[in-house]
Every structure is written in structure tokens, then in C-alpha cells.
Amino acid sequence: MTFHKLYPLLAALAVLGPTAAHAQACGPRDQVVERLANRYGETVQSVGLGSNNGIVEVYASAETGTWTITVTMPSGSTCLIASGNAFEPITNATQAKGEDV
Questions:
Q1: Which pTM does this prediction carry?
Q2: What CA–CA distances, in Å, run from 21 to 2, 5, 45, 83?
Q3: Residue 93's pLDDT is what?
Q4: Which residue(s) pair with 79 in the sheet?
Q5: Percent of the chain with pLDDT over 90
Q6: Is residue 97 predicted with pLDDT exceeding 60?
Q7: Rounded Cα distance, 1 and 76, in Å
Q8: Mean pLDDT value across residues 20-26
Q9: How is the chain classified by DSSP, letter by letter?
Q10: Angle at Cα 2 formed by Cα 40 and Cα 27, nearest 5°?
């Protein structure tokens, strides 16, 4: 997944701010990442930086098809933003119109 595909999510997170993100399930990053790996077999697939300096990551498992989007705030707290099924990686993502290489 390319950064331009994460842009709508990053924009929503910027509007919601850290308080909305912390209303979700949050915890120490190492524990959240470990749980995603152990319980769902998910590994990080893409990463981006939100305007609020939160690191947005997409985790997924090719085996189970599950996916999870997290945001890690500068404080180190990681929150689950969204999750689902039927993840499919896009290897030949097309470039957004008007975007420079």
C-alpha cells in the first residue's frame, strides 16, 4: 500500500486528533504488536506519518487475511483504529493522477 492510499485515513486522524484515537483500544506499542503477531499472524505492511505526528501502520496476514490499522502517538501509546478481513496486498499500485515520482 502506498502513502497516497493512506492519505484519507491520515486526514481523518488529523481531524479526530489523539483524544479520539485514545478512545479506542490502546496500550504499549510492543504489547500491541506482539498480540497482533501472536494472535493473528499480522506483520507491518505499510507505515506513514500523520499530521499529528502519530505513526500510522497497517498490519496484515497473508495466511488469515486479517488486517489492523494502528496509530502510535509520540507518547508511545499505540491504538487500534480499524480491523477487518480479506486483506489483499497490491503489488502494482497505480500512481495518483498528477503525482510526481
A1: 0.69
A2: 22, 20, 20, 14
A3: 66
A4: 26, 71
A5: 59
A6: yes
A7: 24
A8: 59
A9: --HHHHHHHHHHHHHHHHHHHHTS-EEEHHHHHHHHHHHH--EEEEEEE-TTSPEEEEEE-TTT--EEEEEE-TTSEEEEEEEES-----SSPPPPTT---
A10: 40
